[in-house]
């Protein structure tokens, strides 16, 4: 019994150390878009996680549909499989479509649905800075109603923060 606990603890510690190493590696090496040199994309681990979760979801779906199980066990398995597959699709789509461009005079963000949001620093109405653990989130509102929210710790937001200081933009 005690040996099983130590093995489980070792596995958990190994996974935590691996996750920490991957996060540090992705922070030191920003992922640039190959088609647009200014665009910073999500870390590659986002797409890798999506491609790893998708086959698990498909396997659960196929095993639920195959008919080799009790009918009462099929519904939860099918629901979990669909949920995992949808999460995987969202991860891959967000990696493929999302990016942010921070320039000296404006900030451009492309969303999962491929919509472009642009705010010039002169047109920032207000801002809000919040800390969610290690992530320092910055939310900007433009006078024209455009809202951009991004992780200021993951991207180099120094031009945005300098423009907010210069203009003394209201916000928290």
Model description:
- This protein is of the alpha+beta class.
- The chain has two domains: 32-97; 99-167, Pleckstrin-homology domain (PH domain)/Phosphotyrosine-binding domain (PTB) (PH-domain like), CATH 2.30.29.
- 50% of the residues lie in helices and 22% in strands.
- The protein is built from four helices and seven strands.
- It has helices spanning 2-28, 44-65, 71-97, 158-167, and strands spanning 40-41, 99-102, 106-110, 116-120, 124-132, 135-142, 147-151.
- The strands form two sheets. The chain has a four-stranded antiparallel sheet with strand order 1-2-3-4.
- Helix 2 (44-65) packs antiparallel against helix 3 (71-97).
- The protein is elongated.
- The N and C termini lie far apart (52 Å).
- The model has no long low-confidence stretch (mean pLDDT 85).
Q: Spell out the helices and strands N to C.
A: HEHHEEEEEEH
In total, how many domains does the architecture comprise?
2
Strand content: 15-25%
Report the radius of gyration as a whole number of Å: 21 Å
| Largest beta-sheet details | 4 strands, antiparallel
CATH class categorisation of the largest domain = Mainly Beta
| Count of distinct strands | 7
Distance between the termini: 52 Å
Oligomeric state? single chain
pLDDT < 50 stretches: none
Which geometry do the CA atoms define?
A: elongated
Q: Quote the average pLDDT.
A: 85
Q: Walk across the major sheet and give the strand order.
A: 1-2-3-4
